[in-house]
Amino acid sequence: MNNKHLIVYFLLFTFCLAGCLPAPYYQKEEAVPQNAWNYNFRPKFSIDITDTISSYQPYFLIQHSQSYPYNNLWLWVYLKGPGDTLAKKVRVNVPLAEATGKWLGRGMGEIWEQRMAMELGDSIKFNKKGTYEISLEQNMRINPLPEILHVGLRLEKGVHRQ
């Protein structure tokens, strides 16, 4: 078998595996202006929920450069449900590197991407049908936070709750 055949088989295998991954219920990413996340840049994600019986797992999506100066990222996550006037606010720590400094996630050259499950406690239960708004705000001590390229939200639908 020559190298061309091996490449074709590898690509087919890769596409088959990618087809097996669960499709998200919702996913959206936003580019961070000038690759520096300022406190006042709060990406907002609107999600329509029609199934209140299923559980949902939120994920924080991030793309950063290898030059990002920290091994984690603190976030404020704001959740506003249908009919709510005030958003619930939860602080979340997102680890981006191991203690040794090795980046988590996937890297390609100088760019690293990560999808991190967020534990938001009781605040993420979608008990009412309608549109939910989730906003993200960086909560690090430095402003703007350098070397952040994109941030986003992914929501995967799980099994029915009891």
List the keywords:
162 residues; mainly beta; Jelly Rolls; 5-stranded antiparallel sheet; 4-stranded antiparallel sheet; 1 helix; 11 strands
State the CATH architecture: Sandwich
Number of helices: 1
Number of structural domains? 1
Q: What gap, in angstroms, lies between the N and C termini?
A: 53 Å
Work out the strand percent.
over 45%
Which fold does the CATH topology refer to? Answer: Jelly Rolls
Q: Could you give the topology of this structure?
A:
Layout: H1 3-20, E1 26-31, E2 36-37, E3 44-49, E4 54-65, E5 72-80, E6 88-95, E7 106-108, E8 111-117, E9 130-138, E10 145-146, E11 148-160
Antiparallel strand pairs: 1-11, 2-10, 3-9, 4-8, 4-11, 5-6, 5-9, 7-8
Task: Describe the protein's architecture and organization.
The protein is mainly beta and 162 residues long. It has a single domain, classed as Jelly Rolls, CATH 2.60.120. The strands form three sheets. Strands 1-11-4-8-7 form a five-stranded antiparallel β-sheet, with no helix packed on it. It has a four-stranded antiparallel β-sheet with strand order 3-9-5-6, with no helix packed on it. About 9% of the residues have low confidence. It is globular, with a radius of gyration of 18 Å. It is built from one helix and eleven strands, in the order H-E-E-E-E-E-E-E-E-E-E-E. Helix content is 11%, strand content 48%.
